[in-house]
Amino acid sequence: MNITDVRVRRVAKEGKMKAVVSITIDEEFVVHDIKVIEGEKGLFIAMPSRKATDGEYRDIAHPINSETRERIQGIILEKYEQVLAEEPVEVEAEA
């Protein structure tokens, strides 16, 4: 499995969610709505989920094992950092 494209959309409002990401796998399969979250121990990803009737959130699509999750997370967070570095820093104008 190769992740052949990563699209990052930064979230403008303040909060723990920093971006929403779509990945393409092997140029054949897309997973939308992966979230980049700022946690107590740093950034991590949350896979797309849906609220169940019992109020719990359940992943709609997710890796089967931790090695795959870590690989996907590493690729997404690397791209997220690139997007942050490419965006211009806003400078306040002097009054």
Overall tally of domains: 1
CATH superfamily: Stage V sporulation protein G
Radius of gyration: 15 Å
Could you name the ranges where pLDDT drops below 50 across 5 or more consecutive residues?
A: none
Distance between the termini: 54 Å
Question: What is the H-and-E element order?
Answer: EEEEEEH
The backbone outline, from C-alpha atoms, is globular
CATH architecture: 2-Layer Sandwich
Supply the number of helical segments: 1
Largest sheet: 4 strands, antiparallel
Proportion in helices: 10-25%
Q: How many E strands?
A: 6
Report the mean per-residue pLDDT as an integer.
91
Strand order of the largest sheet: 1-2-3-4
What is the strand content? 35-45%
What does this structure look like?
The protein has 95 residues and is α+β, with helices and mostly antiparallel strands. It has a single domain (1-84), classed as Stage V sporulation protein G (Arylsulfatase, C-terminal domain). 22% of the residues lie in helices and 41% in strands. It has one helix and six strands, in the order ββββββα. It has one helix at residues 66-86, and strands spanning 3-10, 17-25, 29-39, 42-46, 49-51, 57-59. Strands 1-2-3-4 form a four-stranded antiparallel beta sheet, with helices on one face. A two-stranded antiparallel ribbon has the order 5-6. The radius of gyration is 15 Å and the shape is globular. The mean pLDDT is 91.
